[in-house]
TrEMBL record:
Name of the protein in its database record: TRXR1 reductase
Organism field: Ramphastos sulfuratus
Family statement: Belongs to the class-I pyridine nucleotide-disulfide oxidoreductase family.
Keyword line: Disulfide bond, FAD, Flavoprotein, NADP, Oxidoreductase, Redox-active center
Record GO cellular component, one term: mitochondrion
Cofactors required: FAD
Domain of life: Eukaryota
Gene3D superfamilies attached to this UniProt entry: 3.30.390.30, FAD/NAD(P)-binding domain
InterPro entries: FAD/NAD-bd_sf (IPR036188), FAD/NAD-binding_dom (IPR023753), FAD/NAD-linked_Rdtase_dimer_sf (IPR016156), GSHR/TRXR-like (IPR046952), Pyr_nucl-diS_OxRdtase_dimer (IPR004099)
Gene Ontology terms for molecular function: flavin adenine dinucleotide binding; glutathione-disulfide reductase (NADPH) activity
Amino acid sequence: VLIAVGRDACTRNIGLDTIGVKINEKNGKVPVNDEEQTNVPYVYAIGDILEGKLELTPVAIQAGKLLAQRLYGGSSKKCDYINVPTTVFTPLEYGCCGLAEERAIEEYGKQSLEVYHSLFWPLEWTVPGRDNNTCYAKIICNKQDNNRVIGFHVLGPNAGEVTQGFAAAIKCGLTKELLDETIGIHPTCAEVFTTMDITKSSGQDITQRGC
């Protein structure tokens, strides 16, 4: 049983209507531009109340720092809401960074993408005899931009730790070629991303039969 506890945007009773700040009447979220500016030029919003943004504490902290630097420090750097690494800490963790495949198709078109994927199992699962091919790895690459990785997804042990490391590479413009040139650490779960060669479009079998 997965229990998802949500958060309410308590924005209806703080006087925003008095100064004309627009909110989404359905959920109380506040629409902003890419600089966290509301429809009222001198009012900004950050964090969980933003319309269409991630409800993650580190995101709110980063956005707040960057907003303060833009307003008072002469900076122009904006918060990157796309390449945010995050993890669902279920018994078998799921981690992701960048775009979901469906979102990538909407944004770039299916013909512009190449999706690589693989099933795998951790070596330590061999002794206790856990089910093989339970874990899954996928990257989404933009063929029109040097096969840059725009989506990273992993389902497996320690997915949070794996995703956090790859997130820095994605921020630096990670490409499929760079992944292929990276020597994997054996035996680790993360090394699967250095050996992926089966595309989703090929329809080939992605089950693993050896370590």
